[in-house]
Amino acid sequence: MLLPYLNPDRIEAGCDEAGRGCLAGAVYAAAVILPQDFHNEQLNDSKQLSERQRYALREVIVREALAWAIGVVSPQEIDRINILNASILAMHRAIDGLSIRPQHLLIDGNRFKKYQDLPHTTIVKGDGKYLSIAAASILAKTCRDDYMNRLHEEYPAYGWDKNKGYPTRQHRAAIAAHGATPHHRMTFNLLGDGQMELDFSCPDDAT
């Protein structure tokens, strides 16, 4: 069972990101402050849930959270500052958007840069340990999936409605066949094995 909070005497915000390992698209992060008496037996790490469960839980989180917000860092920013810094920046932007200022931050993972003067605790696999981080993982994942589904309508050849930008064999084959788009992360190893010749032009009408 997931724990409700680490510090019961403080207003805690859980933070998590989605899309860090993708070849395309922005990285998303969420920050969530839940009521101290919040309880939901279905809430868990977003990776352990079905798509239907994630979207159902998103409605619960948005309705019952004291505050929540999303932060986004573009592929161009990712290429400029690297994915680790971009993931942390996305979490900072999510915290910026909270309508309630937290007194402590619970961060999924083991790396974080201090946000203003707020104390924080990094928790490895925290989305499977604390409710607020699990809630953040669900919001980040579903909001990013919505974004990738919208991009898929513009660039259907890459299968982003299915792979969400992750490095599947089909995604890499599409990059080899159609080239990179403006949404691809050009500092990433787009083709994987490097044995295919990649056209780095940015098609506007890939089909």
Describe the protein's architecture and organization.
This protein is α/β, with parallel strands linked by helices and 207 residues long. 35% of the residues lie in helices and 14% in strands. The chain has 6 helices and 5 strands. It has a 5-stranded mixed β-sheet with strand order 3-2-1-4-5. β1 and β2 form a beta hairpin. α1 (51-64) packs across α4 (131-154) and α2 (75-81) crosses α3.
**Which bin fits the share of residues in helices?**
25-40%
How many whole angstroms does the radius of gyration measure?
Answer: 18 Å
Estimate what percentage of residues fall within beta strands.
5-15%
What sequence of helices (H) and strands (E) makes up the elements? EEHEHHEEHHH
Based on DSSP secondary structure assignment, what is the total number of beta strands?
Answer: 5
Helix count equals 6
Task: Report the mean per-residue pLDDT as an integer.
Answer: 92
Main pleated-sheet profile: 5 strands, mixed
Gap between N and C termini: 45 Å
Strand order of the largest sheet: 3-2-1-4-5
How does the overall form come out from the CA principal axes?
globular
Residue runs with pLDDT of under 50 for 5 or more positions: 195-207
Category from helices, strands and their pairing: alpha/beta
